[in-house]
Amino acid sequence: VTTNAMMRRRNLQVTEQLLAELEAGRFDSALTKRIVEGHSAFTRLLRASFLADQGQLAQARADVEASLEFARGNPVIEMVAGLLFYVTHDYQRALDQFTAAASRSANAARRARQLAISTAGALGWEHDVRELLEQAIADEPDHASWHAQAVRFHVRARSWQRALGHAKRALELEPNNPSM
User: What is the rounded CA–CA span in Å between residue 92 and residue 118?
Assistant: First the structure.
């Protein structure tokens, strides 16, 4: 048995113990504290999700903050943190986390940007949606989906010329895509 296999088995065992504690509502038991304080950002985010589900929003946000201290710069952790900030009603922090994640990793950038745009749109923050779309298009001018989203945005704003410009570009990029 390799060291990696032993570590994976141990991590799974610890995660199962933590889940059992959290599902029983024991957010501050000695076992929960030991696991959360001695491990990674993941354990704190896991507890934060249970706390948020129980309406303990301030405590959930505190765990999210602590998780970022463990793993700031990890775009996956930052996107999950953004989602948890959103469900705990810290909307600006959610948007900031998604934007930070997009800037840290080319691989995660598109998903993080989409989360930011969706969040801003759900909140009715049209100015932010416009800025985020403009930035996405500037960074990835050949990504047809950004142009398609810009079409929808500009149609809602009754900015017909801008919508038409983005529609033409989306169709140029993906002429055979029926969703364009």
Answer: 13
Amino acid at the residue 2: T
Write out pLDDT tens, residues 9-65. Answer: 888 888 899 999 999 999 999 999 999 987 689 999 999 999 999 999 999 999 999
In this structure, the chain runs to a length of: 180
- Residue 51 in contact with residue 63, Cβ under 8 Å? yes
Coil, strand or helix: which one is 139? helix
Three-class SS of residue 112?
helix
pTM of the full structure: 0.85
Sort residue 2 into left (φ over 0), alpha (ψ -120 to 50) or beta.
beta
94 to 51, 119, 125, 164: CA distances (angstroms): 17, 8, 13, 31
Note whether 60 and 48 are within 8 A (CB).
Answer: yes
Q: What is the DSSP letter of 29?
A: S
